[in-house]
Amino acid sequence: MTSAGQSLRTTVLASASSTSISPKASGGAVGRVISRPLFWVVALAILFVLPLGRTFFRRLPPAPPVLSTLPAFSMTDQTGQPFGTRDLAGKVWVADFIFTACPTACPTLTQRMAEIEGRARQLGPEFRLVSFTVDPERDTPEALAAYAARYKADPHKWSFLTGPLKTVEAAVIDGFKIGVDRHKTAEDFWDIVHGEHLVLVDRHLHIRGYFEASNEGVDHLLAALGRVANEAEGDEPRPAAAGPRP
User: Fold this and answer.
1) Which of 136, 117, 114 is nearest to 125 (CA)?
2) Handedness of CA 133, 137, 141, 143 (dihedral sign)
3) How many CB atoms are located within 10 Å of the residue 108 CB?
């Protein structure tokens, strides 16, 4: 190659070298920011640390108050076995009050209890459902077993209780403060009117709330149930002086 050709080639290469684009310059200001380690530290903090912080500092709902304490009771469940407060010791449970011949409120109450059973299944064996009949003279264990089967109630998780009328009334009326009115009609049929609340009870037989059998009521009950189920020993509030009727 001639000297002139070499000179031309050198000039072209020099020109190409002088006009090549620096990788750092290609991204501009954004590229310079992204290339800094501090950027990724801040980005990771925004993505992960802040959401965790919001969860950590979120205020828990207040613990439901202790309204009253249930007296001890012993009845008979749908399997014909004795069942009472001894079997419920150390468990959180929800109670309702029904009778198998009830055509109106009781099916709704039982459906709500079935819903609670499904939604609270993660609590495991430390949680129970208990349904008290307010018509024990007709609701034998066999009648309660047939009623429970219609709602696919698991007898290991959900007990239906009956017993002598005085025993039932002592628990339902005196203990739970649930009203029950029984009178015979002209056709010699017992007409029974009773309270329709769902009742939350803690591990120490303290009543912690009365809830309506509505969508909103069940949601509120489950929120209170979660709070009570996670209480450590000694965390529960002191009992109130007198428990109000629902």
Assistant:
1) 117
2) negative
3) 14
- Burial pattern 149-170, b for ≥16 Cβ within 10 A else e, equals eeeebeeebbbbbbbeeebbbe
pLDDT of residue 111: 97
User: Within its chain, how far is the Cα of 79 from the centroid?
Assistant: 27
Which amino acid, 27?
A: G
What's the one-letter identity of residue 66? V
For 39-93, write each residue's pLDDT tens digit: 556 666 566 555 555 544 455 568 899 999 999 999 999 999 999 999 999 999 9
CA–CA dist 151, 200 (Å, integer)? 21
Closest CA to 92 of 242, 246, 209, 219: 209
pTM score: 0.72
Reported confidence tier of residue 185, pLDDT bands at 50, 70, 90: low
- Exposure of 224 by Cβ count < 10 A (0-12 exposed, 13-18 middle, 19+ buried)? buried
CATH 3.40.220.10 fits 68-229, yes or no: no
Query: Domain coordinates of the chain in residue numbers?
Result: 7-57, 68-229
Q: Which two tokens stand for residue 107?
A: 């099916």
Residues 196-232: tens digit of each pLDDT: 999 999 999 999 999 999 999 999 999 999 999 999 8
How is residue 214 written in tokens? 């509505």
Q: Counting beta carbons within 10 angstroms of the beta carbon of residue 104, is it exposed (0 to 12), middle (13 to 18) or buried (19 or more)?
A: exposed
DSSP 100: T
